């Protein structure tokens, strides 16, 4: 995989290939593993450890300075003892031992410095990765939960509107007046529910007979019989069921990024009525996705080193702060990791370390997208 730049000097990887992606560490977190730090988050903890490192270095430097002076003093003492001849012999032995002790102390201080620096570096890596990974995972969970809660409402909308008398009449009466009334009714709904691009009504053969914004989207008479949302709705067992087509650029709304929820329109609006056709509601996916992505609570400077994504069960990128939504897929090895409820991992891409926090959709009420939220951040900055 080749790495591209988010903004200099922070690296952001491309996901088009995964030949050089390597997982280096991952860990699940239980509730008892949560770490509490100040408002500065991991920076507070890392700052304290770095300060400890500086304090240890300073103390060892002082020991070495004292030992250096002791060695010099012992050397001078031995010189003076030699000058004193037999009278200074005993003092010369003491001076020699002082010099030897100073050398041993210096060696011990240097060994302690080396071990301390290695231990502190390991501690820095552990705290930095754990605190960072846990925080990214928390944010990822919030993002996917917001999406599940919002899209749950869409599943309710389509089942409710599929029982509206105007759409039932348009499909059962099959008159121009009934169809025109359905268009007007769908348009009225759209005026109140601005999260939708359009609402379309198709008969059992897949021919669109009405839509809410005919002046903007010319979908009437279009054949949608092969569309995923139509086909799945036609196979639902009752009016309590709905169907769904994942994020895509829909030709029904001039290739805007969309999700389409659908439900069968049934005779008399009854849950057990025979199927008359299908109502499809075309949701503005970018409006929700980009709002969630852009409002991820990253601290100042983090956005330059962080990539926030929503991916489906297969790893296809559906929303992306890097602007590659519906153009890329994440590596399959990542999808093995995100099957867990809440985890993080340290990965290496082209030799560049990243912390990857992720969360699987927890679901809301009776609904879940089954999608995953990923937040990857360059390690070493932020």
From TrEMBL:
Chief location of this protein within or outside the cell: membrane
Pfam short name (any one): dCache_1
Limits of the Methyl-accepting transducer domain: 56-114
Membrane topology annotation: Multi-pass membrane protein
Annotated stretches, region: Disordered: 1-40
Gene Ontology MF terms in the entry: transmembrane signaling receptor activity
Gene Ontology annotations for the cellular component aspect, listed alphabetically: plasma membrane
InterPro entries linked: Chemotax_Me-accpt_rcpt, dCache_1, MCP_chemotaxis, MCPsignal_dom
Residue ranges of coiled coil: none
Sorted UniProt keywords: Cell membrane, Chemotaxis, Membrane, Transducer, Transmembrane, Transmembrane helix
Family, per entry: Belongs to the methyl-accepting chemotaxis (MCP) protein family.
Protein name: Methyl-accepting chemotaxis protein McpA
Species of origin: Rubripirellula tenax
Gene, per the UniProt record: mcpA
């Amino acid at each position: 995989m080749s790495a591209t730049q988010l903004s200099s000097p922070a690296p952001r990887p491309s996901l088009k290939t995964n030949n050089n992606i390597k997982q280096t560490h991952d860990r699940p977190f239980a509730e008892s593993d949560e770490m509490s730090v100040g408002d500065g988050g991991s920076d507070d903890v890392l700052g304290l450890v770095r300060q400890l490192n500086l304090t240890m270095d300073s103390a060892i430097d002082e020991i070495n300075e004292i030992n250096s002076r002791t060695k010099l003093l012992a050397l001078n003492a031995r010189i003076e003892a030699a000058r004193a001849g037999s009278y200074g012999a005993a003092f010369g032995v003491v001076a020699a031992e002082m010099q030897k002790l100073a050398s041993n102390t210096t060696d011990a201080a240097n060994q302690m410095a080396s071990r301390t620096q290695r231990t502190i570096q390991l501690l820095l890596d552990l705290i930095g990765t754990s605190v960072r990974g846990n925080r990214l995972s928390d944010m990822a969970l919030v993002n996917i939960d917001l999406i599940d809660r919002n899209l749950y409402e869409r599943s309710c909308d389509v089942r409710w509107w599929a029982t509206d008398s105007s759409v039932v009449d348009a499909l059962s009466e099959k008159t121009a007046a009934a169809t025109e009334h359905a268009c007007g009714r769908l348009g009225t709904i759209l005026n109140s529910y601005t999260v939708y691009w359009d609402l379309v009504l198709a008969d059992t053969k897949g021919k669109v007979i009405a839509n809410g914004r005919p002046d903007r989207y010319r979908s009437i008479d279009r054949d949608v019989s092969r569309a995923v949302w139509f086909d799945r709705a036609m196979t639902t067992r009752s009016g309590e069921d709905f169907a769904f087509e994942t994020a895509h650029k829909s030709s029904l709304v001039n290739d805007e990024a969309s999700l389409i929820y659908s439900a069968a329109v049934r005779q008399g609006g009854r849950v057990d009525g025979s199927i008359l056709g299908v109502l499809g509601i075309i949701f503005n996916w970018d409006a929700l996705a980009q709002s969630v992505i852009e409002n991820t609570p990253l601290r100042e400077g983090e956005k330059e080193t962080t990539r926030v994504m929503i991916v489906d069960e297969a790893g296809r990128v559906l929303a992306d702060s890097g602007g590659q939504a519906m153009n890329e897929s994440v590596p399959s090895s990542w999808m093995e990791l995100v099957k867990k409820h809440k985890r993080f991992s340290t990965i290496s891409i082209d030799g560049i370390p990243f912390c990857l926090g992720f969360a699987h959709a927890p679901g809301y009420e009776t609904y879940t997208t089954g999608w995953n939220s990923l937040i990857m951040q360059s390690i070493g900055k932020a």
